[in-house]
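Entry 14. Ran structure prediction on the chain below.
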Amino acid sequence: MRYLALLIILVQALDSLANAADWVVYEGKNGPGMGKHIVWVNGDEEYRSEEGMPMLAKILAVRHGFKCTVLFSLNPADGTIDPNNQTNIVGLENLKGADMMVLFARFREPAEDQMKYIADFVNSGRPILGLRTATHAFAFDRNKQSSYAKYDWRSKDWPGGFGQQVLGETWVSHHGIHGKESTRGLINEKLKHHPILKGVEHIWGPSDVYSVIHLPQDAQVLVYGQVLEGMKPSDKPVSGAKNNPMMPLIWVRNYSGETGKASRIICSTIGAAVDLESEGLRRLLVNACYWALGLEDQILARTNVDYVGVYHPTFFGFGKFKKGIKPSDYEMK
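Output, structure tokens:
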């Protein structure tokens, strides 16, 4: 019996190691984030979240002490990262013990047992940071009778689904011309002393401004998106109505789920992998994680957001993801 028990423990340990190969964990060793666990849920076909999110997670782990677990959409046949697979984000059970979720997903449809981890987190009172396509993170086209169909970005029962109800907006449209008009982030002067904006300047990214028309009254817009004439940070703002008024780009709000527990919510419609080359944007997002977790008094005058290793992101576009990459390829070298 003793040997049987040991065998069971060994099998369970090996199974755990096999599963862990489907995601990557960065363990913080020193900093204000020690003891806090952030789970990063990625899966979008266009904006290379599978490249940008591991980079940010490394910064938060190595520079600031957070434990960061990064999940990906995987090809079930070979375990490679496949952003086009909309039904297989592996490792969502890690959300059970997480302190925060960062979500960068587009039109995902997890299975019922997997979606339950997300829904439980949404209703738990724990904070969420949604990036770019997170406003339309879910689309239940295969199983319209899903228990979580209301999370669909087109939901009528829960208008606008997860995006509008939790983050504050669902998918509406491109406001800037996609691939032709880039984005400059302008800080809202009325909220320039918000902890998330500490030390933040010069936000720019080549992705375009999204239309935002449904923001709830409690949303506080930290940064507005100025549409530029071209794809360089030095380009001039587009003249006319497109920038008058400017669209919200980054905002915060509170969300109380089915349990009545309030969550701190941050949403940023800028955040493609190439956008994250902007030091100002990286600093804002790292600060946002501190604020979300109630650590705003630990934010320094100039948060360290230097890359950990090299970072050469792929420009956005469909079909541009690097094939044959596994989660283990993103492990700390």
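The first strand starts at residue 24 and ends at 26. Will compare against last week's run tomorrow.
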